[in-house]
Specification:
elongated, mainly alpha, 13 helices
């Protein structure tokens, strides 16, 4: 009799535990499926369908923050900047240390002309993630529009330290170094960028200008010739004018 009672207790306890587990797991599984369906629509370029799925979840549900992020991306793809901003802003409220949300919102603020709001967002993104190259690059570009070219160079130094194989970063820094008159180091950046991306016509045009500033007229003309070979027809106009 006692043994039967013990078994009954174990069975009841097991059933209670199972019921409790299922009460937690079932909503989680449902929310996960909704999120994955929305993500699948996003990955297949069906942005409105993705939003429709993701809108099912509210802030009390699992995956809510993930849904806000994907919704922001969907609204961006659809060109709805205001609603994308709303999604990223809500995500930041839910997760104040979400670095990518700050980065994406900053990029949108630039599109709307809110440069200082963008600067604040990029600063916060860097506060929470110093290893995101895109953030350093975005802030460097923003600083350049504010004529802070030396600040841009400093940010690109950080980005290049993280990825020394990114030709675009070297070209950007070279251009800003040209603006501040640092032609020698600009030339070094153009050299490195071209080493990484040797078929970029505009890079040879720009490097030719750096060589000209440093008094290397022959080297400048050779770069113009290479730019022409790569399809930049304006290079030949400059050759006729400057490379007699």
């Amino acid at each position: 009799m006692k043994k039967a009672i013990k078994i009954s207790i174990y069975v009841i306890a097991g059933l209670c535990a199972f019921t409790f587990f299922m009460s937690i797991y079932e909503p989680y599984a449902r929310h996960r499926q909704i999120y994955l369906s929305g993500l699948d629509y996003y990955n297949n370029g069906k942005y409105e369908e993705a939003i429709g799925y993701l809108d099912i979840l509210d802030k009390e549900d699992y995956y809510y923050k993930d849904c806000l992020y994907i919704k922001g991306l969907c609204h961006e793809k659809l060109g709805d900047i205001e609603r994308a901003l709303e999604s990223y802003s809500q995500l930041i409220i839910e997760d104040p240390e979400h670095a990518t949300a700050y980065l994406n919102r900053g990029n949108l603020n630039i599109k709307l002309g809110y440069k200082m709001k963008a600067m604040s967002d990029f600063n916060r993104a860097i506060d929470f993630n110093t290893n995101n190259i895109s953030t350093w690059k975005a802030r460097a570009g923003l600083k350049a529009t504010l004529s802070d070219y030396r600040g841009s160079i400093e940010d690109l130094n950080k980005a290049i330290a993280l990825d020394s194989k990114n030709s675009e970063l070297f070209f950007m820094r070279a251009v800003y170094r040209m603006v501040v008159g640092d032609y020698k180091y600009a030339l070094e950046d153009f050299d490195q960028g071209i080493l990484l991306e040797p078929n970029k016509a505009s890079a040879y045009m720009l490097r030719g200008n750096a060589k000209k500033k440093l008094g290397d007229q022959a080297g400048a003309c050779l770069d113009l010739s290479k730019a022409g070979e790569l399809g930049d027809t304006t290079a030949y106009e400059l050759i006729r004018e400057h490379c007699k």
